[in-house]
Amino acid sequence: MSRRRQVYEGKAKILYEGPEPGTLIQYFKDDATAFNAQKKGTINGKGVINNRISEYVFTRLAHIGIPTHFIRRLNMREQLVRQVEIIPIEVIVRNVAAGSLTKRLGIEEGEPLPHTLIEYCYKDDALGDPFVSEEEIACFNWASHEEMQDISSMAIRINDFMSGMFAAIGIRLVDFKLEFGRIWDQDFSRTILADEISPDGCRLWDMVTGEKLDKDRFRRDLGGEQEAYQEVARRLGLLQDDNGPGEVFDLSAHRGRLRTPAKPKK
Ligand code: TMP
Asked: How far is the CA of 60 from the centre of ligand 1 (A)?
């Protein structure tokens, strides 16, 4: 690791300088945190699975024309991405009531929402990523009006696409979080999807049993987080399904057995 410069370390990922200017290497850790890092733990093999799931989702989103920072997966835990200036807003998209929405408004978990909700939080760990309005975002110049239009329209397209993608494998996309970044070309910037999309930042429920297949298993001490993440990867067709029923995957023993995705069609 000493051969390259660390640019940033977050709760679940590390960013290293990439091989070319304007690129970064995104390393996925097994570390898991919740409630603004008040709860900390490890989910064995999570980094490997999230790297693979995020690669798959970003590649599919690129196919429908969503610009993303993803370039290619490098190995089990790393992907090459474009360096962006992160817009300091977490974009949360909700289809079904869960998590902080149920606490804040007293709505029952599992209640389908009359229409998709988009919420924004200001990315600031010290403040606990507070909920912010579009007016506050504009007032403090965290994102321009044009950027917010791009962000909300991409968020809706991403939600429509991912809802269908997960429904096809028997999973309800309850909610998820997105992050966007700016790419500068002289004085002009373009907004692109950044960060990751994985069970760390999505709520994914089995459509038949309602079982939670995401980080709520860790947040709520439900157990079985490793199996839940693997189940999502398996249903997406990303893990070779050759282990016996009930057997726990040992990812260290599965080195190189993750399938390579199809090349994006131009
Ligand atoms: P919430 O119900 O806790 O506000 O979370 C909504 C969705 O956003 C959920 O799928 C988890 C995700 N999320 C993150 O990925 N990171 C965060 O810091 C927060 C607060 C939520």
From this structure: 22
**What local confidence, expressed as pLDDT, does residue 247 receive?**
36
CATH homologous superfamily, domain 85-206 = ATP-grasp fold, B domain (3.30.470.20)
**Residue 94 CA to ligand 1 centre (angstroms):** 10
Please tell me the predicted confidence (pLDDT) of residue 2: 52
- Placement of tokens 């390259």 in the chain: 4
- Helix %, strand %, coil % for the chain, to 5? 30, 30, 40
Ligand 1 closest atom vs CA 92: 8
Pocket test for ligand 1, best of 38, 92, 173, 214 (most atoms within 8 A of CB): 92
pLDDT per 10-residue tile (average), the chain, 266 residues: 85 98 98 96 98 98 98 98 98 98 97 98 96 98 98 98 98 99 96 98 98 98 98 94 43 42 45
Rounded distance between C-alpha atoms, residue 152 and residue 160, angstroms = 12
Distance CA 250, CA 50 (A): 15
Residue ranges matching CATH 3.30.200.20 in the chain: 6-83+225-258
- Residue 230 gets which letter from DSSP? H
Enumerate residues lining ligand 1, CB below 6 A: 92, 98-101, 129, 175-177, 201-203
